[in-house]
Each structure stands twice: as C-alpha cells, then as structure tokens.
Amino acid sequence: MVSGLAHGQNPRMTGVRAVILFDFAIINGSHATKIADLFGKVRVEMESNRQLDVNECIRMNHDALLHVFRNCADIVFRPLRLTDDSEILLVYIEELTDSNKLEQIISACMISRDLNRLAQYESVTRIAEVVAKVLKGGTAIFLDGRPFAYLADLTAFKQRAINEPSNEAAIRGPREGFTEDLKTNLSLIRRRISHPSLKFEKHQAGELTNTEFVVAYIEEQVKPELLQEVGRRLQAISTNQLLDSGYLEEFIEDKSLSLFPQIQNTERPDTVSASLLAGRVAIIVDGSPNVLLLPMTFWAGLQAAEDHYERFIYVSAVRLLRLVLAILSCLLPSVYVALTTFHPQMIPLALMLSISASREGIPFPTVIETLLMELMFEGLREAGLRLPKAIGSAVSIVGALVIGEAAVQAGFISAPIVMIVAGTGIASFAFPSYSLALPFRMLRFPLLLAGGFLGLYGVAIGVMFIIIHLVTLKSFGMPYLKPVAPIGKNFWKDAFMRMNKRFVPAPKKQ
Amino acid sequence: MKISRWQLFWMFLTLEISMSVWLTVSPTIAIAKQDAWISLAISGVIGLFVTLIFILVCRRHASQTLVEFAQSLFGKWIGRLIGASYILMWFSVSADILRIFSLFIKQYLFHDTPLWVIAFLMIAAMAYINYAGSVEAIARFSELAGPLLLIGIVITFGLNLSNLHPSLILPVYADSGAFSILKGSFVNASFLGESMMIMMLTPFIADSKQLLKPALLAICIPSAVAVVTSVMVIMTFGTNIGSTLVFPYFSMVRFINYLEFIQNMDVWVMFIWIFSVFVKLASYLFINSHGTAQLLGIKNGRIMIGIVAAIIFALSLVPANKIGMLDYAKLVWIPYIFPIFIVGLPIIFLIVSLIKTNDPHVKKAT
Amino acid sequence: MKRIGALMVLLLVTLFIAGCWDRNEINDYAFWIGTALDVSENGKIEKTAQIAVPAGFKSSGEGAGGGQRGNIVISASGSSIVDLEQQVQDKLPRKIFLGHRRSIFIGEKLARQGIVKIMDQFTRNTDTRMRTDIFVVNNGEGRDLLNINSPFNPFSAIVAVDQDRFCRLGDTALRDVLLDVGRDGIRPSMPMVEIAPKNKQEKNEIIEVKSVAIFNKHLQMVGEVSGRESLELFWVKGVLKNEFLTEETGEGTVSLYESSLKKSVRTEIKGNRLKAYVKLEGTGRVLENNTDIDISVSSERIPLERKLNAIKAKQVAATIKKLQQQYGQDAFGIGEEFHREHPYQWKKLRNRWDELFPKVEISVTVKLKIQNTGGIGKRVPGIGERG
C-alpha cells in the first residue's frame, strides 16, 4: 500500500498500478492471484504495511506515516513534547479539523496533563486504519508507550448551506434541499422520520475515493426482497471512484442501454422521506446532493413534490396536463410532419391553406426543416444551460426569437415550424423530473424521421416500439409503468391522479 | 412471467375489439340488413357459449397448452396431428390478418408505399415484444392500448350522434327474417371464436381457475361495441351504403364533422386501432412460436420467434389481392374453421377429458 | 441474439431512409375544392375543377384583396370521370388532392339526363369524403358557378355549402342522396343553386340557394320546387331543423322563427286505399307582428296559433299535392313510413310505389306553438293602423 501511494504526486503514471494494488487489498478472488505473480514483491510489501500495527515508539509511527503521506502537503504532523519528555504526535488535515477543539485537547494534554481524557476517543491499532480515518478528517493522537492511536473526530469543514433545491423548486412545501455533506443529508431525513425503524446502512465504495454512502429504508415498509436485491447489486460494484450518486446509478440500474431513467434522483428531503414511507429505498452518497430513490416508476417522474401538498383536485388536473404535455413534447413535431406531408385531409381546410401558403417558397422539405429547427432549439437550450444564470436565459430566449423570426422573415423556415418547435419546447419544460425529460427529448428525433418517411403509420410503429420498451422495462423488479400496466390497486390513488389523503390509507408493506 | 386474469381480460378485449369494429360489421349488414345489430347480439351469445367451452376445457388442463393436452387426451400421434392442425390454422389466420391489415393501411393512409414495408414494420414490432417480454409484455401493452381504444371508440360514437337518422333502423325483423339474422350472426361469432387462443395461454395465467368472469366479459364488451357500431353505421349510412362500404366504421368516423374542426378523425382512430391489431398479431406470434416449439420438442421457444415471424411475413406476401383475402373469412374461416376448430374439436376435447378424468375417480371410489 | 437485433435496427433505419413513397409536401398539392359536372355540346361530360392557389389565398388574407383570386378553375371534357381527373392533372403543376373537396355542382342539363354514371367515384376513392354537398345548378352550368368570386370566401364552392347550411341542410347532401337512392319508398332530392341576377348595388355575382331538385328512381331530375315549398318539402321529409315563416292572417302579416321542427307520419292501408296523416310540429318566436293581436295575451294568441296552423297546413298539403300531381315522385319518404309501419304489406307495394304515390291520400295537420313573443308583447302603439 505504501509503495502504491508512494508516487501519489504523479497520478497518471501510477494510477493504474495503484488501482490494481488496491484491488488486491479488497478482493481476494482468483482474479487477484493471477496478477499477484507480476506484482508479487509489491504485494508483499503492501500487505505487510497493511498489517502493520501501531508501534509503542512514536518515532516509528511517525516514520511510517510520513512514508505514507509523503508529498501530501495538506497533512499536518504535529509532534508535541510534554514536560516529562514524553512525546505526543498529532496527525490531521488542517482544513478538515476544527482548530478550536484541537487546541482544547492540546492544552488539556500539555497543561493539565490529563491524558486520560483522551480515553473518550476511539483507539485504533492498525496503521492502515489510522491512515483511512485521518484522510476522512479525523485527528490521530499517538502517545508514547501506547501501542495504539486515539482518533478524535474533530471534523469541521466548509460546506454549502442548506439551500432551496433549485432544480426542484416548489411553491408550497419545505424549501430545504440536500447539500453535499452526507451527515447533513441524513439529519435532514431523520428530522422528518423520527422512528427507530428508519435505518441508515453505511457502505463504502471506490478504492481511491473511499466514498461513503448510505442505504436508507424503513424496516417496516420495505420489502425484504427489494433490500436483498439492492444489497446484491451494491456488492457487485467494482470501481475505484465514486464521485457522485450518478456513478452508483449506472452500476446498479437494470438496463444500461435504456434511454429511460430507472432510478429516480431528487434533491428534496421531503420527497425522499415520502418515498421511504412508501417502502422505497434511498441511497445517499457523500458529496452528492442528489439522492437516489429506487425502484422508480414512470409516473414518479411525472410527479412533483408539491403534488402532495396542494389540493388534490388541482393536482390531478395538473398531472393529467403534464402527461399530455409529455406526450406532446415527444410527438408534436413528428405528427405535424406526418400530417402535412402524408395526410393533409386531416387538417381543416382553412388551417391547411394557411400552412400551405406559409410554406410557399421554402427551400427545405418539411422533415428537414423541422429537424433543423429542433436541433437549433436543443443547441440553444444546451448553450443556455451552461452559461451564467443571468446571461443564460436571456441568450436562449433572444436567440430562439431572433433565429426563428429572422429565418421566417428570410423565407428559410415556415412560420408554423417555429410554432411547433416552440410548443414542443414548452411541453418539454413541464416535466418535474429533469432526467425523465431527457428520453423524451431524444426520442423526438427518431419519431420525427419515422413520421417524415412513413407518415402516421411510422409514428404509430415508433410509439409502439417505445411502449413495448416501457412495458418490458423493470426497475428492481418493479414494472416501470406500474400501476397502469400492470394495473395495480393504487391506480386511482397516486399515479395519473391523486386522491384525497382522507380516502387513501397510508401505504403499508406490500 | 405469468399474467393475471384481468390482464388476460384486457388482452382479449383489445384483440376482439379490433375485429368487431373493422371486419365484421359490413358483411353482417349485407346479410341481415338493418337487423344486423340483432345478428351481432346473437353472435355475442354464440361467442360466450363457445368461450365457455374453451374455459371448461382449459380448466381441466390448466397447466398444459393445447398442443400438450391434445397429446395427453388422444395419445401422442393423434394429439400431435390435432395440435399441428391448430397451429397451421393459426399460421394461416395470422398471415391473413397481417395481409388485410397492411392492405387496409395502404388503402387508407398511403398509395404507393409497398405492402411489405408496412407488414415488415409490424412483424418487427411483433418479434420485438415477443423477445423482450413474451406474453407478459403483450398483456401489459394491451392494458395500455385497450382502455385507449375503448375511450377512442366511445368518443367517436358520441361525436357521431348528431349524424344519426334513427328511423333508418326500422322496421325491425320484417325485412330480413330469422334465417338472415342467424346467418349474419355467424360472421362475428366466428371472429369472437378467436378466444380459442386461450387454450394455448392457460399455463401462463396466474390464477387460471377463475378465468370465467374475465374471459366472458372480454367477449361481452367487444360484441356490445359491435352492436353499437352496427346501429351507428346503419343510422348514419343506411343499409345499402353500409353494406357496400368495406370498412364502414372508419367511413363513419370520417363522416364526423364537429365544430368544423374535428373532421376526418379516422386517421386518429386508426392510430390507436393499429395498437390493438398489433396485440392480436403479437399474441398469434406468441402462440404460434410457442406451439411450434412444443410440437417439435424444442426447449427454447425463443428461437422459434424469429423463424415463425419470418414464415408469417412470407405467407402474408403470397396472396394476390384484398378481395381474395377477405374471401378467406367467407370461404375458409366461416364454413370450415368455425365449425371444426372453434365448435367441434373443443367440445370433443371437453367430452374426452371428462371421460378420461372421470375414469380414475370411478376406480378410486370403487 | 444481440447481433440479430442490431441487424434489425439497421434494416429498419434503411427502410426509413429509403422509404418515402407517399411523401408529398403540402405545397406540392393542388387542393381540389369544388367540382362541376356539365354536358358539353357534343354530348360528352365536362368536368370543371376549382383548385386552391395558396399564394393567392395568403395575399388576400393580408388585405390586398380583390386583385388576386385564391383559386383557379380548370375544365376538361371526356367520357369517364377518372379520365377527366387525369386531364385536369395534366393541366396542373401540382398533384391534385381530393380530400378537401367540399361540393359538387351538376349542371341542370346533365341532371335531367341522369347522374347514375357519375356517382360511383364519389364514394369509391378513399381520399374523398362522404361529407360533400351536392347541388344542381338551376338553369345553368356548374362551371359558371365555380367562376363566381365571392367576397366572403375565395372559394365559391365553399360559399355555396355555407349558404346551404345556413338556410337549409348543410354538407350532408351527398350522403342523403345516396341514402335515398337505395330505398324504395323515397326519391332523392338535391338542393339547387342559381346565380342571382346582378342588380345595381352588387358588384359581384351572388349565389342563391333556394330551390330543391327532385329526382326519380333512375337519378334523373324531373322537376324542382323552390322557396317556401322547398322548405316544406324538407320539413315533411324530416330533415329541416328550423325556418323563418311569414303568414298573411287576413289582418296583417305575422313572421315567426320556428325551431325544433318535427314531423310524424301515421299511415293506414285500407284495402286499396293508402292513407297518410302527416303531423308537423314546431315552437316559434315571433319576429314581426303587423296585426293588432296582442300575442302576450293567451286568449288572443291561441286563436292566432290556430289560424296560422290552418294556413300552414293548407300550404303544406298543396305542396304535397303538387309533387304528387306534377312530378309523381315521393321526395318526402311517405313510402318509407309505410315501410316502417306495414313492413309486410310494403313488400307488395314497393315495386309499384311510383304509380301508387300520386294516389295516396295525405292529410296534414300543423301544430306550431308561439313560445316567445320577442321583446314586446303588443305592437308599440302608434305603429300601424289605429284601432
């Protein structure tokens, strides 16, 4: 291990090797033994180091740690010499440590010589463990003549305050959003569900990042099979890095080639709490404000958090509207193209004549025209997303207007197309879930081609393929379209529409 | 991958409705004139009766498909022969439906697009759903398509109300007479008899003992739809236009003009209706591939899907024209398939199965 | 398996790219709005098409007006309808599209010759719609009608439909004709249009829809009734929904707007005598009252209603008589009423209906109710005669 980390300052060269080394440490499979011959020597050295215990002699410990933390500028070694010549060594990361508390400890040791006070802290005997804890922000305290180290958790670091979740804003309901800190996030959930049956199982993944994540569930509500399945998939992860919940999502989702998200993500603690209460499992990853919720159904993507806070009739109407808009965002351009180029008898005469009139002299076929404008729109949206907030929205709106207006004025693009593209855009903004809007944005294009080349029959076939995919898709054993296909007993309660809570019993274990 | 009985209900509902609004109305009007609706109601009763027999047979062999229980009832070779003849019949039906479907789409939506393109896209979707999710996926698909289709049909009925001349349905009975009415009822009854595919599906149904209610309801609703459709068509077009129109329901929908804006709705109805034909064809593909695999003793039925799909596709391209294909219903389906495969053999199955299973009971008792 | 899947996807993609057999841009279509059919001098059929010109439509929409027509009119003559369609296509740079045809005009000369031969293609082509209006052009050629330039709509073919809808039946005429052709107890009738003679104020020629053409079994036009009589015909036929009527009561005229018009017919067969009792009902609103009757008073209104009913009944009876005597064609569908009420006897009557109809004894009763007197009850004192 030491040798693996030895070249830490040159990660590009040693990265691969380091990965392999760490694999050794964790996996004791046949895979590991094969490569073991190649790196045999290193392995022995590392294994020995891993096994290394904390020495009674502080010097030895100091050297060992110094070797491990070579070229790590952020690690502070602070040897203290007491009046009786006994030595104390503090090892910590300055930025992650609450200096006030640290000074208290130091003063306690130095002045009142109250070394017993340290007994309140965890004692660790393995060097490797010390290293891991220090990297997580702990403070290691070595005392002369003791074959272990005290590890004080004095972690304090700068973190973002709890803000309103910007991507999932709600008019009514709590304004809190998750932050990047795991502990804060857990506290946000615990504050909502104060019951011992809410469990937070702690795991760690990523051999280089050593990221902690928590699997949360309510023991009374969750199906044991679901938990087992989640556990099984989490076990199977092998990665050396876990920087965001998105990494985890890719490892545990059912179909990686599907366009549709099979795991929901949210920034809202209230959504997470409601989902937990409904028997779902949440995965909270340290360093990511997006919590994963699983299993996910299609309808969950069409529901906003405040659906449960607003009055139910309004909410049911809005959900219906969202569904219609979702379908429109996918089908509007293709249906327009199919109707105008294949089935003009569908369009009322007056409307059709004005479409026809506005298309006079346009150089592109309708399909190409629509495709161009849709691409342009997607481009503008993507560009606007990355720009600073103040400029972003202005640029995208003005850009769309100018491009649309100018293109129509110049006679490149017919006016109805601009309207269709704008309508599609509006419809695609109505998704409460950003990740569910993505497949709809993408599917628009193949459907557009299908409509452009085979008319409504092509669109129908395309829609059929999408539906077939959706009905066969499962998220952790849960059919994606449940409770609509297959029809479940919650059909009227909380899918298309939401019934008044008075008439809907709270979800129980299924 | 079992389906529930209400999923079976939606599946059958979807695939029966597609026929009752599409192919059955016009021939029935041609035979029974303005009393076509009585014919269709009677055919519903016949359909119920026939389905009842199927279910009684299925109940006795809940864990077996037709191919399997025919062998256990009649011995290996006769059983295989019966199974093979059913499969052959289903092959011919699915090829026929695929063919009529593509001709119909071509006639209404296109002019120059080659038939094989239309048929090929359908076949591709059929194969995909069978590979991806088998009968379970078909059932779920129909749970989406069925309600959509029902809503669509009810809306078109509602919008058509203003075009009706109620007096066109009169006089009742006098013009046609009992014989014509009964003769007309065989058209739709034979289509409703397609519920015989249940005999291939029972092993895939979770609670196969309680099929009666959903299966019978799945016959009732389509025949009710057929009755209303025929009444609407007769009241809109009278009997003489109604019987000459090849697809009167779609002509009726095209006739709707609501607020000068909602017009020519037939393409929209067709859009949903394609889904239900798809359910029908996909189920046929499923039972064909599954049955063939069982017949030939192939363990992995999935391999057969592609082969069977290719065969159906090839078969559908063989016949000459639309009239020849509609004749299939008139010349083959009604005079041969209906009495033999839908009525005759199932009754024999039931009797033989009753005798065979009763025997050991008698022995045990004595 | 994956490879087969990939192959399928590839095939599908090529299909989509290779396939655009039926694609046609909307501005490559020539929208056929109206058809006119006439007999040319040498006895051939002449077909005239009114075709939309969207560019012209746009400019007139923007208010340029007048200068450019929104349509062109093209004609061709030949023997079969489809052949004529091809000839029309030869004269156009865009593909003709029949899905939006709104009306068909038949010249009176052709109508009198018989239109059996031309009806089939109106229903066979799946592009065309059943909801089309069909007219006979009174004393004229259909072609002239298509040439009319109406200020309301660039297409005179649509103007005629709107006008027909507003004052009579609307766009179900083709269906109604086809419906009647197949039945024994009714003879088809079609609305007639005519080009109204210009007067000084009117710059453009104007379409007038006021008569009905009556056809016999072989779809030959045998006569026409116009004005009030044509409305009465439709009322007895049961397709009229509302009408304006003005009656001379003897003390002055009364005008009513009658809506929810109904008819019911009872029939009776006594030996060789056929009897039919026609009962017409409706509720009305008074529009004009030039008499001294105070219609808000029941004791005065009821006698008025009776008087109106008697007058109307006499008029309707006269109209029926006229059709029985003059044309001998049952455009009312009295025969169908016999069919419904006496289905078994009807089987003997149906083939002789053209002979029998003139001899049917028809009595008419009318029941109009005045429900609404308008804004005032009595006339404003001082208007009209002073009593």
What's this model, at a glance?
The complex is a heterotrimer of chains A (510), B (366) and C (387). By secondary structure, chain B is an all-alpha fold. Chain B has helices spanning 5-20, 25-32, 36-60, 66-74, 76-109, 115-132, 134-160, 177-192, 198-201, 212-244, 248-255, 266-296, 301-317, 322-365; strands at residues 257-258, 262-263.
Notes on the structure:
The complex is a heterotrimer of chains A (510), B (366) and C (387). By secondary structure, chain A is α+β, with helices and mostly antiparallel strands. Helices cover 49% and strands 11% of the residues of chain A. Chain A is built from 17 helices and twelve strands. In chain A, helix 12 (312-342) packs antiparallel against helix 16 and helix 14 packs across helix 17. Chain B is mostly helical and 366 residues long. Chain B has helices spanning 5-20, 25-32, 36-60, 66-74, 76-109, 115-132, 134-160, 177-192, 198-201, 212-244, 248-255, 266-296, 301-317, 322-365, and strands at residues 257-258, 262-263. By secondary structure, chain C is an alpha/beta fold. Helices cover 35% and strands 30% of the residues of chain C. Chain C is built from 13 helices and 13 strands. In chain C, helix 9 (228-237) packs across helix 10 and helix 11 (334-341) crosses helix 12 (343-349). The chains are: A alpha+beta (510), B mainly alpha (366), C alpha/beta (387). Chains in contact: A-B, A-C, B-C. Chain B binds chain C through residues 107-114, 117, 120-121, 124, 127-128, 131, 163, 165, 167-168, 170-171, 174-175, 236-241, 244-245, 251, 254-255, 257, 263-264, 306, and chain C through 1, 4-5, 8, 11-12, 15, 19, 21-22, 99, 123, 126, 129-131, 171-172, 175, 178-179, 181-183, 238, 336, 339-341, 343-344.
Q: Could you give a short account of the major beta sheet of chain B?
A: 2 strands, antiparallel
Output the strand order for the largest sheet of chain B: 1-2
By helix and strand content of chain A, what is the structural category?
A: alpha+beta
Given as residue ranges, the uncertain stretches of chain B (5+ residues, pLDDT < 50) are 361-366
Annotated CATH homologous superfamily of chain B: Amino acid/polyamine transporter I
Unreliable stretches covering 5 or more consecutive residues of chain A: 1-47
CATH fold annotation of chain B: Amino acid/polyamine transporter I
- Approximate shape of chain B: globular
Question: Structural class given helices, strands, pairing of chain B?
Answer: mainly alpha
- Overall pLDDT metric of chain B: 84
**Tally of distinct domains of chain B:** 1
